[in-house]
Structures are given as C-alpha cells and as structure tokens.
Design goal:
Layout lengths: L7 E3 L11 E11 L5 E10 L2 E10 L7 H12 L6 E7 L4 H5 L23 H12 L6 E6 L5 E3 L1 E5 L4 H9 L4 E4 L7 H7 L3 E7 L7 H17 L15 E3 L1 E6 L4 E5 L6 E2 L4 E6 L5 E6 L4 E7 L3 E2 L4 E7 L19
Parallel strand pairs: 1-2, 4-5, 4-6, 6-10, 8-9, 9-11
Antiparallel strand pairs: 2-3, 3-5, 7-17, 8-10, 12-19, 13-15, 13-18, 14-17, 15-16, 17-19
Helix pairs in contact: 1-6
Bound molecules: zinc ion.
C-alpha cells in the first residue's frame, strides 16, 4: 500500500515555523469558488536542516501547461531534506481552476500571467492572483516559473530572462538551455512582479502543453539541480555555465495572411535566413495560396503544428539576435507572446 497523509489547509505560509529536515505538504486557501468552498493551492515545502535561500518553483500557472508538474515531482523524489540547506517551495498546480478545466486561463477566462499581482478588491481572477503573490510568491528569494507552449504549438526548451540583471542572467545560464530570449519583464507576468519585489525570477518554457515530455523534463531537471548546487542548497559541482545557448535579443511571431491548410517547414531550434520560405498555406484543393517568408534571420523558438488555420494564425516564433537599427517598428505583431 502507498502511504498518503491527510493534507491540512492553511491560511498563511509560515516558513520559519516549519520544522527542518522534513517534507511538508499543505493546501493554501486563496479565494472561494461558487460552492463557497476554498480554491486551495497545493504546496510542498522541502525544508532543509541548515539555513539557505528560499527557492520557489511554480508550474501550471497556465492550467494546461503540465511538464513542470513532473519536474516538481522529480525534485520531491530526489531531494533529501536531511541533506538540504534552505527551503524549496513547490507549487505543481498554480492555477487550480484552469487545471481542472484543462485550460490556460482562470475560471473567468482571464490569463493569470497578465494580471499579476491582481487586486484585493476585483474580479475573481484578480483576487486569486492577489493572494497567490501576497501569500506565497512574496516569501521567496528565487523563482523558476515553469511554462510550455500553448495548445497547437510546439516549443523548444527555452528561457525568458532579463540578462541585464546579474542574478537573473546567472539563473538563465544555470539552466543550460537551447535558447535564451532576453526579456525585460512584461507588466502583469508573475516574473515581472517577482523581480520588482526582490524575488529573482526567470521563466522556463518546457516543450508543449497537455503532455509530459520526458527528455525535456530531464533536461530541465538538470538545470534545476544545477541551480540548487549554485545556491549551495545541495552538494556537488556546478556544471559549466558557459553555455552554447543561442541568445536572442528579441522574439516575435510570424503570422499567416491567408487561411487554409498550413505546413510549417523548419524544425525547432533551426536557424532560418531572411527571405526563406518557412511555411506554405494551401487551399482545400491543394493549391498554394501563400508562402510565408522569414522577414529576418533568426532561430526557431516555437512553431504552429496545427495544419488547419485561419488567416492570421501564428506560424513561427522567431528569436532574433540584434534589432537592426533601421527597423523602427519591429516586424510581426506585438512581442507580448509569453507562453
Ligand atoms: Zn504559460
């Protein structure tokens, strides 16, 4: 028989009161749902026996982005709290209603990662975001926010981080990712709120929504362990942080103009050249209606994999290295495409 314990619901996360050398499990009451019962976020706290930083991992802030859940479970299995320094705060399911509905957004259709830190008097998603940041995220020193691509698109493993700030640059390189996209934090994201409030935070984008992808999960796990070694929370050598990651100054989506059946050619992490045909849009009779062209050279961060597409579908997420001086207006739509 597998042992499972009764998990208590807490109103506050009092990390200093928790005993060291133990894995603690709790529900955190954030707001109430329409049954009048609490929306409770599951939290696992691994508290070591000696002092150290408080590191948080959040998964499924978009309720259908699930790879990070597996990363958190791997940590729970691997970390021995008796040989651990500091505290790990693990949130496998950050957006509980979104997870239950198998959707990105909160129950009211709002994207939580656009409205952080919410409001104490506001819409249902605002309340949830407010208590999520106030009760939990504000207690951390470091945050790794685990995401994936949206449904119908695939992502490589990549990092979004502000590389101009030493702490977040270090966190990004510790992950040894395929691609890093430099991001000055967009308002409303959890990462942005965290960094503004003294919690050093990066976003790790792990593959695709609605699935567990073991190879990407394992790569992400290595990066997380590397981070814990660097912060001296577990023993061991920090792996070489001089990474061969492709660093992009900027990224944006290229869209189709026509609707129909779309075939996107480059693979993830491929380099594409300016002028290259990256996709063809066919009509339902097999005739080419549009060739989608890369307007700049860059690297493929993500791509659409759903063939049936309307006009104006996101085709390919391109990371580019330098903003060309003559390009006042950055091509593509607004770059606020955080997965
Ligand atoms: Zn996401």
């Amino acid at each position: 028989m597998f042992k499972s314990t009764v998990i208590k619901t807490k109103e506050e996360l009092s990390l200093s009161k928790l005993k060291g050398g133990i894995v603690h499990r709790m529900h955190m009451h954030l707001t109430d749902n329409s049954l009048g019962v609490p929306w409770r976020v599951p939290i696992i706290v691994i508290k070591g026996t000696s002092p150290g930083p408080v590191v948080g991992l959040t998964a499924a802030l978009h309720g259908n982005e699930l790879n990070g859940i597996s990363n958190i479970f791997k940590l729970i299995e691997e970390i021995d709290p008796l040989k651990f320094s500091g505290t790990l705060v693990l949130l496998p399911i950050s957006n509980v209603p979104g997870y239950l509905m198998n959707q990105r957004e909160f129950s009211d259709g709002i994207d939580l990662n656009r409205i952080m830190p919410g409001k104490d008097k506001g819409a249902t998603s605002d309340l949830y975001a407010y208590h999520f940041t106030k009760k939990i995220i504000g207690k951390l020193n470091y945050l790794l926010d685990l995401h994936t691509a949206s449904h119908g698109r695939v992502n490589s493993l990549y990092i979004r981080a502000d590389l101009d700030i030493e702490e977040t640059r270090t966190l990004a390189y510790l992950q040894n990712p395929q691609i890093i996209v430099k991001k000055h934090d967009e308002d409303g994201t959890l990462r942005s709120w965290a960094n503004e409030n003294g919690v050093h935070a990066i976003t790790i984008e792990i593959g695709n929504a609605n699935t567990f992808q073991n190879s990407l999960i394992n790569e992400t796990h290595d990066g997380i362990l590397n981070t814990l070694r660097y912060l001296e929370m577990i023993e061991g050598e920090v792996q070489d942080m001089i990474t061969d990651a492709t660093v992009c100054d900027h990224s944006y989506w290229i869209y189709s103009n026509k609707g129909g059946i779309v075939d996107v050619f480059p693979k993830l992490a491929d380099s594409v050249k300016k002028g290259q045909v990256i996709a063809r849009v066919y009509d339902v009779f097999g005739q080419v209606k549009e060739e989608v062209i890369a307007d700049r050279s860059g690297v493929v961060i993500g791509k659409n994999v759903r063939p049936n597409c309307e006009a104006g579908t996101r085709i390919l997420h391109l990371g580019v290295s330098i903003i060309e001086p003559e390009t006042e207006d950055i091509p593509g739509h607004d770059d606020f495409e955080e997965s």
